[in-house]
């Protein structure tokens, strides 16, 4: 079986400082990879390199494209990469303000990706938007409200709907539940799990929160100082951590 | 005014502007950057259009200026006088006689012909600005034909008003390639963007020139189920009776009486001179007395 996404020896430096170093992994269709690690360990750097927001200094990021199979995303033309970013890929930001258009209605936010790939029927775009608002538990009568009028949890759910509406195959998420109340987090996690499983999505999720990982991730990667110190099946890593740092993490001696 | 070069701008500047114009004509709808010069009038007065006119005028030209369809607003009169003084060109108010027409907010009702040039004054050339304020990003979007955002804007219109409420500066797709802001003309004028004349657009403050060569395909953006409509007030002109022109609503007295009249004053006068009369019109001869 070919991986959907394959990362090989990826390194990103900020001058002399290491962002992330020598990261490799394969992600297979339908798999969810969790990335945990303390603050500054390189999680966001890695995720942004994977999603093409940052150029790595070394290594490869390969994606199983629909038309050309597994190719190095660095060799794609810019239009190709941008097209990928709004069709097969999605990116959920920690702060919904970074992932939403705050001046555009909820319906317009959800419809944007559809229009970007050529949808030109208002009625159909609106129907899809209502359907997707429903799937993220936002009432249909909020469709014409702007995100500003939404709570933090609703904004995050709207961001998720806006990203999933084109049926992407790979979703990147940076702390999707960060900055939310605990009860709101639980609901969002539940929703994410349902959506991801139902759509058979592959995802890379960066988080501080081991509960998020336990609930969502099939596999887990533990980072420290830019390096991957341990990776494997989530249950294995969490129940029988091999690396000293992971042991500290799991025994919650370390507050990440 | 012998201390000025012909049409005010020096030859070097005019060459630079002409190069931008030629590039604009070669790539219809593409916004060409140019080094806008200080003109002896404020930006809101259409310095972009004035610079384009200055660069293309030749002594044999007959120049017309319209502002919202009218030849005799302060703005139109000053620009006309400016070129009378600096270029010594003949001027006219008749669309059919003009070789170069500078306009703000309208396209003349009379179909333009080959050999004529229409110069638009443009305040904001970037149609994507509304939803994407970052200039580097909008340039990339044009380069990669990523125009989904334009439809988001129209979507928002319909969601809020039940129909596409954009009435001015209605965005168009030029020759199947570039999305373009046609300047704040009413959308009623959009169909006439497909013209036999050369159309040049100048934005002074924003330092952009763009162009439509004759007979360029210009399509107003819309949705399948909300097609573009070149709508206008549902009246006939009270003066000339025309039922197919863009109308201004004029308050005629302090009791709130209103008159709908052609915004294109030259067109309206020509019709009245030819004997057409609207419901509110005094006989044409009287108005000329
Ligand atoms: N733009 C930047 N310029 C210089 N150094 C940076 C930059 N961004 C991140 N770094 C450094 O790279 C390292 C990894 O940072 P990164 O943001 O990837 O960590 P993180 O694991 O996402 O942390 P957090 O959990 O706080 O979000 C840190 O040492 C950080 O200071
Ligand atoms: Mg981070």
Automatic annotation (TrEMBL), chain A:
<protein>
    <submittedName>
        <fullName>Phosphonate C-P lyase system protein PhnK</fullName>
    </submittedName>
</protein>
<dbReference type="InterPro" id="IPR017871">
    <property type="entry name" value="ABC_transporter-like_CS"/>
</dbReference>
<dbReference type="GO" id="GO:0019700">
    <property type="term" value="P:organic phosphonate catabolic process"/>
</dbReference>
<dbReference type="InterPro" id="IPR003593">
    <property type="entry name" value="AAA+_ATPase"/>
</dbReference>
<keyword id="KW-0547">Nucleotide-binding</keyword>
<feature type="domain" description="ABC transporter">
    <location>
        <begin position="5"/>
        <end position="250"/>
    </location>
</feature>
<keyword id="KW-0456">Lyase</keyword>
<dbReference type="InterPro" id="IPR027417">
    <property type="entry name" value="P-loop_NTPase"/>
</dbReference>
<keyword id="KW-0067">ATP-binding</keyword>
<dbReference type="InterPro" id="IPR003439">
    <property type="entry name" value="ABC_transporter-like_ATP-bd"/>
</dbReference>
<dbReference type="Pfam" id="PF00005">
    <property type="entry name" value="ABC_tran"/>
</dbReference>
<dbReference type="GO" id="GO:0005524">
    <property type="term" value="F:ATP binding"/>
</dbReference>
<dbReference type="InterPro" id="IPR012700">
    <property type="entry name" value="PhnK"/>
</dbReference>
<dbReference type="GO" id="GO:0016829">
    <property type="term" value="F:lyase activity"/>
</dbReference>
<dbReference type="GO" id="GO:0016887">
    <property type="term" value="F:ATP hydrolysis activity"/>
</dbReference>
UniProtKB/TrEMBL annotation, chain B:
<dbReference type="Pfam" id="PF06007">
    <property type="entry name" value="PhnJ"/>
</dbReference>
<dbReference type="InterPro" id="IPR010306">
    <property type="entry name" value="PhnJ"/>
</dbReference>
<protein>
    <recommendedName>
        <fullName>Alpha-D-ribose 1-methylphosphonate 5-phosphate C-P lyase</fullName>
        <ecNumber>4.7.1.1</ecNumber>
    </recommendedName>
</protein>
<keyword id="KW-0949">S-adenosyl-L-methionine</keyword>
<dbReference type="GO" id="GO:0098848">
    <property type="term" value="F:alpha-D-ribose 1-methylphosphonate 5-phosphate C-P-lyase activity"/>
</dbReference>
<comment type="similarity">
    <text>Belongs to the PhnJ family.</text>
</comment>
<comment type="function">
    <text>Catalyzes the breakage of the C-P bond in alpha-D-ribose 1-methylphosphonate 5-phosphate (PRPn) forming alpha-D-ribose.</text>
</comment>
<keyword id="KW-0408">Iron</keyword>
<dbReference type="GO" id="GO:0051539">
    <property type="term" value="F:4 iron, 4 sulfur cluster binding"/>
</dbReference>
<dbReference type="GO" id="GO:0019700">
    <property type="term" value="P:organic phosphonate catabolic process"/>
</dbReference>
<keyword id="KW-0479">Metal-binding</keyword>
<dbReference type="GO" id="GO:0046872">
    <property type="term" value="F:metal ion binding"/>
</dbReference>
<keyword id="KW-0004">4Fe-4S</keyword>
<keyword id="KW-0411">Iron-sulfur</keyword>
<keyword id="KW-0456">Lyase</keyword>
